[in-house]
Design a protein that fits this description.
The chain is α+β, with helices and mostly antiparallel strands and 214 residues long. The protein has a domain of 149 residues: Electron Transport, Fmn-binding Protein, Chain A (Pnp Oxidase, Chain A, Roll), CATH 2.30.110. It contains five helices and nine strands, in the order αββββαββαααβββ. A hairpin with a 2-residue loop joins strand 8 and strand 9. Helix 4 crosses helix 5. The chain is globular, with a radius of gyration of 20 Å. The model has no long low-confidence stretch (mean pLDDT 97). Bound molecules: flavin mononucleotide (FMN). Its EC number is 1.4.3.5.
């Protein structure tokens, strides 16, 4: 099977990122881009981001997770601490996050250091989740091999019964991670492949700003 996609071509013309637009702090720019994505009717789940991790075997893995909050402290997502990403992050607590919002022709790439958030904060978020998601977190040993879907559904049915009238506790191996950026790149598609790329790199309490060739 072979499909040739070489003729797929698009001119990016929806925006520009000039030096005059750049705040000293990249979180300000992130916020304005994120709000644009969030308000755009053609973008579903503006908070879906790619998370890339590399464990001790050196083989990178990327998957989508949902950004659940951000502040100048960093970017927070939730997951199973014993999942493949959890193991890789234990081995090497650094990652790359990336967002691509095609309707805006914008990409943001963030490299940073990762740590677990406070247990109390994870518990508070867990409690705010719908009961089905809470039970799902208990039912699924994320990233482990399972014999069939039926095993998972039976496990969920049992848990539904067990916790019928009870508060569901947060699994001890489930919680949030915070990514504290060491750099953030903002990419805006432009005509003739002369895209705008602006790199913010953390420099003590300040951010160095540089333009990269597209
Ligand atoms: C739109 C979307 C959102 C997702 N959000 C999350 C999330 O917030 N947390 C999570 O652990 N997995 C999420 N997943 C599932 C992950 O992509 C992945 O399958 C899972 O975390 C297991 O990854 P791992 O085996 O590399 O650890 C999401 C998947 C998609 C497509």
């Amino acid at each position: 099977m072979q499909k040739d996609l070489k003729h797929y071509r698009k001119s990016y013309e929806k925006g520009e990122l000039t030096e005059a637009d750049l705040p000293a702090n990249p979180f300000i720019l992130f916020q304005s881009w994120f709000d644009m994505a969030d308000e755009n009717d053609h973008i579903d789940e503006a908070n879906a981001m790619h998370l890339s991790t590399v464990g001790v075997n050196g083989m990178p893995k990327t998957r989508v997770v949902l950004l659940k909050s951000y502040s100048r402290d960093g970017f927070i997502f939730f997951s199973n601490y014993h999942s493949e990403k959890g193991i890789q992050l234990d081995e090497n607590p650094q990652c790359c996050l990336s967002f691509f919002w095609p309707a805006l022709e914008k990409q943001v790439i963030i490299q940073g250091k990762v740590s677990k958030i406070a247990e109390a904060e994870s518990t508070a978020y867990f409690k705010s989740r719908p009961k089905g998601s809470q039970l799902g977190a208990h039912a699924s040993a994320q990233s482990s091999v399972i014999g069939s879907r039926a095993i998972l559904e039976n496990r969920l049915a049992k848990l539904e019964e067990e916790y019928k009238n009870l508060e569901i506790p947060k699994p001890t191996n489930w919680g949030g991670y915070i990514v504290k950026p060491i750099n953030m790149e903002f990419w805006q598609g432009r005509r003739n492949r002369l895209h705008d790329r602006i790199l913010y790199s953390k420099n003590n309490d300040n951010w160095k700003i540089e333009r990269l060739a597209p």
